[in-house]
Amino acid sequence: MSRITRLVGRRNVPILLALLLGGATFIGALAWLPTLSDGDTTPTVETRSVLVARDDLSAGERLDRSRLALVEVPTDVIATGALTRIEDGEGQVLRYPVEAGEQILASKFVGAERAEATGLAFVVPEGMRAVSVPVTEVTGAGGLIVPGDRVDVLAAVSETLLVGADYPTEGPEADIARREAPTAIVTVLQNALVLAVGQSVSDTSSVSRDDGAQRADDATPDPKAVSVTLAVSPEDAQALFMAVTEGSIGLALRSFGDTSSATVAPIVDVAPADDQPKVSAR
User: Fold this and answer.
1) CB 62 within 8 A of CB 126
2) Helix residue spans in the chain (DSSP H)
3) Is the dihedral of CA 15, 16, 17, 23 positive or negative?
4) Looking at residues 161-190, what average pLDDT do you find?
């Protein structure tokens, strides 16, 4: 019997062997761990750039580059319809609010297909005002005007309203002069953008005042419409409202794409002695 056997006894030999094997395994594991840490064990995450809001955005805002940013996010968290270019969001009008850092989705914008459902306010060009004028089939170009067309606005008003007219402006004399003065036909506005005919609205929010007509492909005339809504400047809105309240309005439809401007002198009725209808230009 060996000395080791005598010291530990036969029954303790398996325990001793297990301890020796466990120690060897532990030492081997310690030697293997440094090699594991030297390798790249981080799984690869695929990312893409998406458009987000730099800060909180309100419904109705028109976006510019300063309010947008591109960030890298994992592809598995990109929302459906998320935009991937700043150009896709620039100039768009928000239908819903967006929080800072939130992905910008195409469904957040006011689109042409939803213009009628969302209301007229979302299709009025920036800096302009929407003003409605009454029309008939005759005064509205035969009822053939559609949203996106361009028109000139003509008005039949008292000559006393013309700039430089030599009539009394105050007192009973002014009232008499207005009733007795001849009617003047004036061009109040030129190249006005048609936003709506009756309740038919078209998305013209991307059209500037100097652009040509931009008619929707599916636009159809409404001969029964009793109003046409135009996009005009705040100053022109005053002149247009004056013409509507003081006289009668007619619309002259422009050729598609025609944005030219013409100098047109007013035409004033002259009541001749023989009561024959006659007009002369002043």
Assistant:
1) yes
2) 3-8, 13-38, 86-89, 115-118, 171-180, 234-246
3) positive
4) 69
- Site of tokens 């936003």: 195
Going from N- to C-terminal start, the domains of the chain cover 47-109, 121-281
CA–CA gap between residue 196 and residue 222 (Å, rounded): 10
CA 254 to chain centre: 25
- The C-alpha atoms of residue 116 and residue 231 are separated, in whole angstroms, by 16
Distance linking the first and last C-alpha atoms of the chain:
141
Give buried/exposed letters for 203-225 (b at 16+ CB in 10 A, else e): bbbebeeeeebbbbeebebbeeb
pTM of the shown model:
0.53
pLDDT tens, 25-82?
666 555 555 554 555 556 788 999 999 999 999 877 888 899 999 999 998 999 988 9
Instruction: Please check whether the domain covering 47-109 is classified as CATH 3.90.1210.10.
Output: yes
List, in order, residues 6 or more apart from 137 with CB less than 8 Å away: 143, 223
The DSSP result for 59-71, as a single string, is TTPBP-GGGEEEE
- CB-CB contact of 88 with 51 (8 Å): yes
**What is the DSSP code string of 138-178?**
TTTGGGT--TT-EEEEEEEEEGGGSTT--S--SHHHHHHHH
Give me the DSSP letters along 101-129: TPBPBGGGB--GGGHHHH-GGGGSPTT-E
Ramachandran angles phi, psi of 188, nearest 5°: -80, -45
Say if CB 133 and CB 240 are below 8 A apart: yes
Instruction: Report the C-alpha gap between 244 and 248 in whole angstroms.
Output: 6
